[in-house]
Design goal:
It is a single chain. This protein is 31% helix and 29% strand. The protein is built from nine helices and twelve strands. Strands 1-2-3-12-4-11-10-9-8-7 form a ten-stranded mixed sheet, sandwiched between helices. The longest helix has 16 residues, at 148-163. With 259 residues, it is α+β, with helices and mostly antiparallel strands. It has two domains: 5-63, no CATH class; 73-253, Gcn5-related N-acetyltransferase (GNAT) (Aminopeptidase, 3-Layer(aba) Sandwich). The relative contact order is 0.20. It binds coenzyme A.
Length: 259
């Protein structure tokens, strides 16, 4: 099978990294792709459904390489885990509540840390940027395609933009100092979608991720969005186990290719 589709500039990424980054939009009805179409002088990305085996072969024939597999999870508002409210304690310290969003150790089954969750403000730009830059190590923005500094720069910029309501609609921070974790969110096609989710490395496995996820679901529910969606990498078994523990189901499986 020959590859069909078109190559479009990924403007935001090109600007961010200071080099051309494009996206190959595969389209079975589109024009036949020629070598010169994908020879952009920069990186060309393609995201293919895991079931599109022939398209993957066609990409491989054009010199594309598999970079990462992506799992897109769906959490339903009616889900058992996301439905409830409870009392959160951290080493015996009662939680500071924000918007009634809490996690319940009795429901989640995990020891839950004290975690007030609040929207980030302009004063939190550096805090949010640091959390994202240091907390998100598993990524398709990886060597040899992207340097560690480029990956950090991407997530720092993304989180800072979300704080200002750009790219994502908002950023929520966990912890009284706002330095224990973050989640960024946007409304997309009738669902709430998580952009970034990270808990500071020294504070993981204490229920902070669960509390952030529930806060995200709460944000979506307030907007009448029944589903919360989040994509993660197949190379990140910790995150996959985390979403499964929250009752998430797989919505889609995709493969990322670069050339
Ligand atoms: C994934 C992440 C957000 C989870 O946050 P967390 O605060 O550590 O998670 P919780 O304490 O709320 O975990 C709840 C449950 O999820 C499961 N879980 C969480 N992390 C897990 C891991 N690394 N391995 C296996 N199961 C895990 C467990 O069932 C856990 O309950 P338990 O601790 O009682 O066994 C956090 O580990 C993180 O920031 N990781 C790095 C960044 C990342 O991968 N982000 C997601 C990218 S989309």
């Amino acid at each position: 099978m020959a590859a069909r589709g078109r190559v479009e500039s990924a403007g935001w990424l090109s600007e961010l990294f200071g080099r051309p980054v494009s996206m190959l939009m595969m389209d079975a009805q589109g024009p036949l792709l020629r070598e010169q179409d994908v020879r952009t002088g920069g990186l060309v990305q393609a995201k293919i459904s895991s079931s599109a085996l022939e398209e993957m072969d066609a990409l491989a024939d054009m010199g594309f390489r598999l970079v990462e597999s992506e799992v897109d999870f769906i959490l339903e508002r009616s889900g058992v885990t996301l439905g409830g409210m409870g009392t959160v304690v951290d080493d015996g310290v009662p939680v500071v509540e924000h918007g009634g969003v809490q996690a319940d150790p009795a429901e989640g089954g995990c020891p839950v840390a004290a975690v007030g969750i609040r929207p980030a403000t302009a004063e939190d730009l550096d805090r949010a940027g640091d959390l994202a830059a240091e907390g998100l190590g598993h990524s398709r923005f990886r060597l040899p395609w992207f340097s560690v500094d480029e990956r950090r720069h991407l997530y720092r910029t993304w989180a800072r933009a979300a704080v200002m309501g750009s790219h994502d609609d908002l950023c929520l921070l966990a912890g009284d100092g706002g330095d224990r974790g973050l989640v960024t969110l946007r409304q997309e096609n009738g669902s709430a979608r998580i952009g970034l989710l990270a808990v500071a490395p020294g504070h993981q496995r204490r229920g902070i991720g669960t509390a952030l996820l529930r806060a995200a679901a709460h944000w979506g529910a307030q907007r009448g969005l029944a589903q919360l969606r989040v994509a993660t990498q197949a190379s990140n078994p910790g995150a996959i186990a985390f979403y499964q523990a929250q009752g998430a189901r797989v919505g889609a499986l995709s493969q990322w290719f670069y050339r």
